[in-house]
Amino acid sequence: MSEDVLLTEEQDSVCILTLNRPEVMNAFNFELLHALKNKIESIRFSTEIRVVIITGAGEKAFSAGADLKERQTLSDIQVKEFIYTIGNLFTAIETLNKPVIAAINGIALGGGTELALASDLRIASMNSSMGLTETRLAIIPGGGGTQRLPRLIGRGKAKELIFTGRRVGAEEALQIGLVNQICEQEVLMDECKKMAAMICEAGPIAIEQAKFAINFGMETDIHTGLGIESNAYRVTIPTEDRLEGLAAFREKRKPVYKGK
Q1: pTM value?
Q2: Residues classed as catalytic
Q3: Would strands 6-11 and 14-19 be described as parallel, antiparallel, or unpaired?
Q4: Fold of 204-251
């Protein structure tokens, strides 16, 4: 398996993953799914990486979703395997113990939008276009879209977008809460790196526990969620980083967190 379908760059505790199939608008085939899966699994246990940025190669597309040319060659069983693989991959990204920023640099359709939904934060270029278009192919979103989209933008709006298969541009995506921020394409990665740098200034254990509390607490009633938050908070209490944060505040300096 060639690793060229996924490019990796690590700098200043940030790992940038670039889907590298620009000739097919960075569409997902099995090779790309497995390459991304393997990299996410390795990042999970890395003490050096604190934030992940995922983007697409070229200027046209983040990802156009599943590679439909490959799909035409697959048997029904292989299609089921593909859906199982992409679903588990996006869940692994959603539950990764580090924040994931989607740098949406153009078209993000079907699985491309679902990858963005599985990320923690979404920053989109002004030329971006997003949508869950599967119903227009007589199928439904299979990488978590029917579950993550309504949780993010509300049930009614999610049903509208999924039922119609309509695409939304950058400004509408921002208006409905589908993305956190929009910017011109030439500064997209700069904006994502700025966001990542701000996150890296915080305590890594605290970030991990905050993500855990939000993700799992939101899926429960408020009382259970508060219990999850309380337990997550307790994890941060005996850490060296918490003491460093207090010392830095007292000494009026920037803290140096080590994830310990």
Answers
A1: 0.94
A2: 66, 111, 114, 134
A3: antiparallel
A4: Lyase 2-enoyl-coa Hydratase; Chain  A, domain 2 (1.10.12)
